[in-house]
Amino acid sequence: MKYEIVRDKKESGGKDGASGLIETPQWTLGEIALSKTTLEQIEEMIAYVKNKEKLLYAWEFNRFLKTGKGLSINFFGPPGTGKSITAEAIAQKLGTNIIKVNYGELESELVGRTSKNLSKVFQDAENNQSLLFFDEADAVLSKRISNLSQAADHGVNSAKSTLLTLMDKFNGVIIFATNLFENYDEAFLRRIIFNVEFPIPDQEMRTQLWEFHLSKNVPRNITYERAAEISDGLCGGDIRNITIKLGLKLLAGKANIVDEALINAQINNYKLIKLRHKKINPTEIVVEDAPSSDLPEE
């Protein structure tokens, strides 16, 4: 299986192998609800990139940073907490493009091909001065296989060794994101300077999320603070999906205004669907009462 960086040859003309994956960041830090701790760490990341020459040469950090002088970052936390869009926002803040990589797209059944694909992606990021972002990074940063039983196992370990070498030599910014941080190999952890947790949003962060996703132009008679209170436990991705459903209810004429009852109905519907996905019996879970017309749709 041959890996090609170009996603759409028609758009790229088939000439520039990196053009299909290079994206212009669409998010800014001001649009994302982040904790104070996370924002402080992001400020340090940006300070490193913008003042790298002073750190390395005026302060002589180059005495031990003799090869790659890049920055390796890891975002970890539950799905929907903003890891991917924060990577975009950092690229936007740095004035660079972003190359998004899913390791599954780089894997190959051909021995040695995955390592070549990884090398090409790093080279493209270096040549184009783009931030490199690996989503679902546990697939590539997981522990190496100790009991090698088949050729494929050797290929997996070879790819991981290649990635370690590439990280050591890389001069740009690389961000990994995962929901399974505990699966990382310690060799990779030693090369990552920032490990940033993205927790479930607290009350203040949920208020920001509702303010962002539910415009003041939307008819409503509930405060953002109250919406945050009744959405305890939800992440940004959850609130985004719920607000879309709220907007569709208004557009379809099924509701005239967004109120607490309508939000509760959609939250309960959303939670029940997630429970069904996890094969948990919804009858065992107590949720707020919702109008019968807003029960989960099959």
TrEMBL record:
<dbReference type="InterPro" id="IPR050221">
    <property type="entry name" value="26S_Proteasome_ATPase"/>
</dbReference>
<keyword id="KW-0547">Nucleotide-binding</keyword>
<dbReference type="InterPro" id="IPR003593">
    <property type="entry name" value="AAA+_ATPase"/>
</dbReference>
<dbReference type="GO" id="GO:0005524">
    <property type="term" value="F:ATP binding"/>
</dbReference>
<dbReference type="InterPro" id="IPR003959">
    <property type="entry name" value="ATPase_AAA_core"/>
</dbReference>
<dbReference type="GO" id="GO:0016887">
    <property type="term" value="F:ATP hydrolysis activity"/>
</dbReference>
<feature type="domain" description="AAA+ ATPase">
    <location>
        <begin position="69"/>
        <end position="204"/>
    </location>
</feature>
<dbReference type="InterPro" id="IPR027417">
    <property type="entry name" value="P-loop_NTPase"/>
</dbReference>
<protein>
    <submittedName>
        <fullName>AAA family ATPase</fullName>
    </submittedName>
</protein>
<keyword id="KW-0067">ATP-binding</keyword>
<comment type="similarity">
    <text>Belongs to the AAA ATPase family.</text>
</comment>
<dbReference type="Pfam" id="PF00004">
    <property type="entry name" value="AAA"/>
</dbReference>
